[in-house]
Amino acid sequence: xxxxxxxxxxxxxxxxxxxxxxxxxxxxxxxxxxxxxxxxxxxxxxxxxxxxxxxxxxxxxxxxxxxxxxxxxxxxxxxxxxxxxxxxxxxxxxxxxxxxxxxxxxxxxxxxxxxxxxxxxxxxxxxxxxxxxxxxxxxxxxxxxxxxxxxxxxxxxxxxxxxxxxxxxxxxxxxxxxxxxxxxxxxxxxxxxxxxxxxxxxxxxxxxxxxxxxxxxxxxxxxxxxxxxxxxxxxxxxxxxxxxxxxxxxxxxxxxxxxxxxxxxxxxxxxxxxxxxxxxxxxxxxxxxxxxxxxxxxxxxxxxxxxxxxxxxxxxxxxxxxxxx
Length: 325
Known about the structure:
Elements: E1 2-13, E2 22-30, E3 34-38, H1 45-52, E4 60-68, E5 71-72, H2 78-84, E6 89-92, H3 96-99, H4 106-118, H5 122-135, H6 141-144, H7 154-165, E7 172-176, H8 184-200, E8 204-209, H9 212-218, E9 221-226, E10 229-235, H10 236-241, H11 246-253, H12 294-298, E11 304-306, E12 309-311, H13 317-320
Parallel strand pairs: 3-8, 3-9, 6-7, 7-8
Antiparallel strand pairs: 1-2, 1-4, 4-5, 9-10, 10-12, 11-12
Helix pairs in contact: 4-5, 4-7, 5-7
């Protein structure tokens, strides 16, 4: 059963004819399932999820539909969103250093949502916050509750954000780049923790990331975005093994590998994401695509069903799996 259903979501400046930040995003997320939205910086993935909670930036217009368990989120009043935000949907923001209040202790920040949304007393919220820190594997939790964010490491702050997001036992957890800026060991610990939390709390997980290595370990399905549009979506294992879109192929080729010559130059996608060069009538990736043909510059590719999802590309999968051109 679908928990979250997004249909033709568009986000763009209110007073500008500039290219939209998000252009026709559609996906569904079932209860207990996990979906990763992948793309390079500027692809629109973070703005897309912020708009679901009414947190998009000022001066942006949002259209389309996003239904959470039957509740329409787009255009909803703040009073309606307050019923959902922090209670049924929890979010871990991209940068815990700027998301946590430097003037409040860890215990006060976790306890705030418990007091506001669940009506707990200060003493009760303290006890629940202690259990939550234990659940996210924070050692010496009683002492950490009394500390301020600047006294914690990056990995510890990320765990505190997780504890705060889980305080009201949400049905959906949105995690925006949760492993960014963490060293490899802490990343591994956090990935394991997210897997365990999804199981223990019966969570649906919406993961925002540019790290394809994280995707395969956390999410059953993956959606790849570029310049605000969907390039392809499908089963994560299949998509990472046999992508059907040139952009996904390029992302995978750009990953560092242990079996390559360390002195060889790394693969890089030609050009850069420049929205001013993107035509609304054409494929947005065509200017950087080594497989592009004339049709790609003239016509926006329609959605094409594949065995486990959808792709937006004029070229056949078997053509792009061989040689460019």
